[in-house]
């Protein structure tokens, strides 16, 4: 049975996807300088500004939340989300304020979505997706093919039925959220721990053989060509026999053209399984294969400075690898961690920020210990929203609207990150600068920096898709006043 994609008033690629992030004004970086309005690479300047203005004293303000700070580094910062906590005000408040990506912790697993063959129940997962979308968050899909949380009926199928069931599950689930999931964990934990580098026994491995992973990825690509397709595993964070086995599989896939876009490193760390010394090196070697790398389920047992230092190490490793596109922690608060009785997350059981939180925020370039508890547009800053305005066979135009909060501003800075191999070919109504990767564009005004309270302006750009139609990610709006 093929489930129809969710009813939407408009397809996701036309939606104002990204959260109108409040560029909260905490902590001055005092990056004063002159930002002259250089000519843009504009081609389609339908509403081009003509005034050449110099913005003196363009004061950049540090981001005060994990999501905003990560976005300014061209990355996302996400969390696992459980649907049954979405009614809890502190949980939702922390989730909405701090994170710009959400991964359903259990709600997209096979036993939750297809408890009986061919009967799909999307309700709890839809609640999370809807919540995330309303907040402008990305959604990671977790997970399609996994030996665990697998309903009993799957294990009792014969080979042909199992193959059909696996492909139908992937096609139906990905089809339900087609265009709405940033990255999917297509196959999860397919390798054994230990020194063998062997495949883990599972119904899929045992009946379909080694080729099941490749088959799952091919089916996934057909089901949602816009989603990034990831292989995800644990104890693969350092260089060891297990990560070598995954590495060899990814290298083989890339060489033979099997569709794979990313590798997820779960990064569940504790005293027995500490952050490996070669963590960054390991991320880098996978990235060098031509895949993105993502830290997908981060949590680190411990407390205080030691825990903070470990978190800092992980964040710095990701920032040092240009294809490390984001970090997800495996839960909002210690209260609901899967590590029962543990304290592995960034917020304690009362939603207080822990030293680990401050360390992560600082490593991302944000303001440690601070944070605006109320990222409301009315704080004298600015917000941003995105809309795709046109699409052709090889490109699309995007428009970012920048709106001042309850005080006038004299300038703004917004980052826009596109997904390689996409390229921005033209821009208008703004002055762009680029990071070394060419994927992260920092846009500043082109004569349209002075905004009265509540007033908005917009800038635009053309993205050459080069086969990838993932929507750009916006960093928060940083205002100058
Ligand atoms: O929802 C039921 C509840 O109705 C029942 O009363 C209760 C009693 O046991 O169980 C509840 O379900 C539990 C579920 O979490 C939701 O809390 C399951 O028993 C429990 O097994 C399940 O654990 C999840 C675990 O995956 C299962 O393998 C954890 O929440 C989840 O954090 C964890 O996540 C995994 C990733 O998917 C893959 N990588 C490792 C990671 C940590 O184990």
From TrEMBL:
Keyword Metal-binding carried by entry: no
SUPFAM superfamilies per the UniProt record, alphabetical: (Trans)glycosidases, Carbohydrate-binding domain
Occurrences of domain GH10 (ranges): 60-363
Domain of life: Bacteria
Keywords of the record: Carbohydrate metabolism, Glycosidase, Hydrolase, Polysaccharide degradation, Signal, Xylan degradation
Stretches assigned to the CBM2 domain: 375-481
Matches recorded under PROSITE patterns: CBM2, GH10_1, GH10_2
Signal peptide region: 1-43
GO BP terms, alphabetized: xylan catabolic process
Reactions accelerated catalytically: Endohydrolysis of (1->4)-beta-D-xylosidic linkages in xylans
GO molecular function: endo-1,4-beta-xylanase activity; polysaccharide binding
EC number(s) from the headed UniProt entry: 3.2.1.8
Active site location: 297
SMART domains with a match to the protein in the record: CBD_II (SM00637), Glyco_10 (SM00633)
Similarity comment: family membership: Belongs to the glycosyl hydrolase 10 (cellulase F) family.
Protein name according to UniProt: Beta-xylanase
Record organism: Streptomyces mimosae
Classification of source organism: Bacteria, Bacillati, Actinomycetota, Actinomycetes, Kitasatosporales
């Amino acid at each position: 049975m093929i489930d129809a994609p969710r009813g939407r008033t408009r397809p996701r690629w036309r939606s104002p996807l990204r959260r109108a992030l409040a560029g909260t004004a905490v902590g001055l970086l005092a990056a004063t300088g002159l930002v002259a309005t250089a000519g843009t690479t504009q081609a389609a300047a339908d509403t081009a500004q003509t005034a050449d203005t110099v913005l003196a004293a363009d004061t950049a303000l540090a981001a005060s939340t994990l999501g905003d700070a990560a976005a300014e580094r061209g990355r996302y910062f996400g969390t696992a989300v459980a649907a049954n906590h979405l009614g809890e005000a502190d949980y939702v408040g922390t989730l909405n304020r701090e994170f710009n990506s959400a991964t359903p912790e259990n709600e997209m697993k096979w036993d939750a979505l297809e408890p009986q063959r061919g009967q799909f129940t999307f309700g709890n997962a839809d609640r999370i997706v809807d919540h995330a979308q309303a907040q402008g968050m990305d959604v990671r899909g977790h997970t399609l093919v996994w030996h665990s949380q697998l309903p009993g009926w799957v294990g009792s199928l014969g080979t042909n039925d199992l193959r059909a069931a696996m492909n139908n599950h992937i096609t139906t689930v990905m089809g339900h959220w087609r265009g709405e999931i940033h990255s999917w964990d297509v196959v999860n934990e397919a390798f054994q721990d230990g020194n063998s580098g062997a495949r883990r026994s599972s119904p899929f491995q045992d009946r379909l053989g080694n080729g099941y992973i490749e088959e799952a990825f091919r089916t996934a690509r057909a089901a949602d060509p816009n989603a990034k397709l990831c292989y995800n595993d644990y104890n693969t964070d350092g260089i060891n026999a297990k990560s070598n086995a995954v590495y060899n599989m990814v290298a083989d896939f890339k060489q033979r053209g099997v569709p794979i876009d990313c590798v997820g490193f779960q990064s569940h760390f504790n005293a027995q399984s500490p952050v490996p010394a070669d963590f960054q090196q390991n991320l880098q070697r996978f990235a060098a294969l031509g895949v993105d790398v993502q830290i997908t389920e981060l949590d680190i047992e411990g407390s205080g400075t030691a825990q903070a230092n470990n978190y800092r190490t992980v964040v710095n490793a990701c920032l040092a690898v240009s294809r490390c596109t984001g970090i997800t922690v495996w839960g909002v608060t210690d209260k609901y961690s899967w590590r029962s009785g543990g304290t592995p997350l960034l917020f304690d059981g009362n939603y207080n920020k822990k030293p680990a939180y401050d360390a992560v925020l600082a490593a991302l370039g944000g303001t440690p210990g601070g944070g605006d508890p109320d990222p409301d547009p009315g704080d004298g800053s600015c917000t941003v929203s995105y809309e795709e305005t046109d699409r052709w066979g090889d490109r699309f135009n995007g428009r970012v609207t920048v709106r001042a909060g309850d005080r006038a501003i004299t300038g703004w800075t917004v980052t826009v990150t596109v997904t390689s191999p996409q390229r921005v070919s033209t821009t208008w109504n703004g002055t762009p600068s680029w990071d070394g990767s060419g994927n992260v564009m920092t846009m500043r005004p082109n004569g349209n920096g002075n905004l009265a309270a509540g007033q908005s302006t917009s800038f635009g750009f053309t993205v050459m898709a080069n086969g990838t139609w993932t929507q750009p990610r916006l960093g928060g709006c940083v205002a100058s006043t």
